[in-house]
Amino acid sequence: MSNILKAFINITHDYQVNIQTLTHGNNRANNMGEGLEAYIKDMFAGTSHEPNEQKKLEIFEKLYSYQGNKNNPPDLMLKNSDAIEIKKLESKNSAIALNSSYPKAKLYANSPMITKACKACEDWSVKDMLYAIGYVKQSNLKSLWLVYGDCFCAEKETYERIKDTISNGINTIADVEFTETKELGKVKKVDPLGITDLRIRGMWHIENPNKIFSYIYEYDESKDFQLICLMTRDKYDSFSSEDREDVESLGVDGVEVLDVKVKSPDNPVKLMDAKLLVFRV
Fold it and tell me: How far apart are the first and last CA of the chain?
């Protein structure tokens, strides 16, 4: 079974990458988003240099329980472990577009925003949400944040309260026909002829980790590549002692393993114990 610590070690040994030259099977990635997803998938699986495509697929099957797409988050789910959402940025400080999916500290199996295949891929009810946020410049991966949702996303009730208030307000509009939807609302037959429909979608954005966590990490313009992993101390301690020792004894220049405190997403005056893993080169 893989995890963020194993991926961290794999990336320190294989960080230089041109995103658009990566391939899915025998096909070159169509865009940098696909290339970043292929890179993340390989880093958790340790398959970046596996030439045999059949063997690579067999490793993926053992490791992952689900792979989504841009319309159906999450992008990946590790068996009996984390859900992974992958976001590509072309500016190091730009906000992250989450589209209709609000920020998630955890992923719940009863969420209406995930597919039946995702719900049924294994026996699960809740997973930790890991965001993989890559900054790509001229096809080269310049930085990668691997940060857990519970380090910066509030509890789901915070977002659902806003979503439900908007949806309920839309449903009070008189003399129009509504239909059930996973979006904020869908109005049927808006005009007298009954030929116009209106879809109301949420477009969620969240700040870049470089801004959110500027008080514990400063982006270094002089470096070719930066990897930043952030998790609560409880999450870090949940990994095996062997995996933690492997990271802490990693003899690679530019690696730091730091104890930090981060603001609680639900109450910023409270600080949470966290672990920050950094690789800069």
Answer: 28
Give 173-231 as a DSSP string. Answer: -TT-EE---SSSEEEE--STTS---EEE---EEE--HHHHTTTT----TT-S-EEEEEE
Determine the 3-state secondary structure of 4 from DSSP: helix
pTM of the model: 0.90
Under the banding of pLDDT at 50, 70 and 90, the label for residue 21 is low
Give the DSSP per-residue string, 60-124. HHHHEEEEEETTEEEEEEETTS-EEEEEEESSTTPPEEEETS---SEEETT-TTS-HHHHHSSS-
189-228 CB burial, b ≥16 within 10 A, e <16: eeeeeeeeeeeeebeeebebbbebbeebbebeeeeebbbb
Rounded to an integer, the average pLDDT of 5-27 is 78
Region of 43 on the Ramachandran plot (φ > 0 left; ψ -120 to 50 alpha; else beta): alpha
Cis peptide before 74 (omega within 30 of 0): yes
